[in-house]
Amino acid sequence: MNPPLWSAAPFVLLLVTVALLEVLAAAWWSRPHHKALIISLFTIPAAAHLLADDGGPAALGHSLTEYLSFLSLLAALFVISGGIHLRGSLAGTPLANAGMLAAGAVLANLVGTTGAAMLLIRPFLRANAHRQRRAHLVLFFILIVANAGGLLTPIGDPPLYLGYLKGVPFDWTLRLWAPWLFVNGTLILLFNLIDQFIVNREERQDRGTGLMDQLIVHEPLRVEGRRNVVLLAAVVLLLVARLPAPLVAAALWAITFASWRLTPRAVHQANHFGFGPIVSVAIIFAGVFVTMTQPLLILNARAAHTGLTEPWQYFWATGGLSSVLDNAPTYLAFTAVAAGRSGISIDDPGYLSTLVGTSTGADLLSAISCGAVIMGSLTYLGNGPNLMVKEVAEHRGVHMPHFFAYAAAATVIMVPVLAAATVLFFPPGSPP
């Protein structure tokens, strides 16, 4: 199957429409049924075109299966983490905020970026409730906790979990500790400097308010909803077990339902828990997964013409596409290209075990993994937790930047860090 380039139009138009509506009609766009209406305008034609082509129905079925796995995991982590409430408050000083981001970067590898983001975003915002300017807090939270933090384990981020299912050894991603440490460490240091500057300016502008005195006030933390900690451990064990995808999805939905039923209403109320964020993600990414099928088929069909030979090229190509497309299918697309370049057939469900068995393949997969996970932070669509964090923050009164403004701010922050990471870990001219 060699789809024409124009067949990618629904995907491109979907991305442009979502971005424009966030800017021009945010109030109208915030309603789930309006999202569903707009998404269907692009999803239905894309699905109809696939169903009419040879090989299209199978490709569409594969995308829908991946969407189900994606949504099952995100919904489980969202609901379970929403049933865990950290009572009390942390200090909201720049140093304490940086410490929480560092803790989130570690926690993301144990419970996934979605679990860590949903567990920590509420106490993070609560600790900074007295601040006038909070958008930068959420922006760095997305960059670190919801993305770059989850680079060390297959549980950390959906693309790495898909790699594990395709044959990557469970402990293989630990070899990425150096890029993980450099990127997250640099971002946390940069955040601390920016946050301290903003706090100092707020103090100067509002003398007499005692801002710093308010920020250092905190109460001892205690965990409510401990049953969900057990359910969170069950999700982790389920992901580690090599079970068929439909069985995993069914088990995740069962755990999600159990969490919702067993969590006391007081815990949900304390977390201001609602299904709005996960519903928005489900609607938008349903459109993304269906309309992205043709672009991925185009990429796979033209793999020989991609010009990708060196790790740094895979790093930037995977990351660039991950920023506008969910990073999980992007990861699979470029691992397929890397396997084809290495003469490895992707007909074998565990083809990545062969790829990582060679030094060349391991280097390429390292670059693909880092690009997919780290650069998924560059837009709200790059990774599922991004939109969830945005929705939660806005629900708590934070005025978040629209699609283009967020993308611009994230790019300005990340590009120098990514350029330095390229030189350190994927230098141009290094053997593929």
TrEMBL record:
Keywords: Membrane, Transmembrane, Transmembrane helix. It comes from Actinoplanes sichuanensis. The lineage of its organism: Bacteria, Bacillati, Actinomycetota, Actinomycetes, Micromonosporales. It comes from the Bacteria. The chain crosses the membrane at residues 64-86, 98-125, 137-156, 176-194, 229-255, 275-299, 403-426. This is Sodium:proton antiporter.
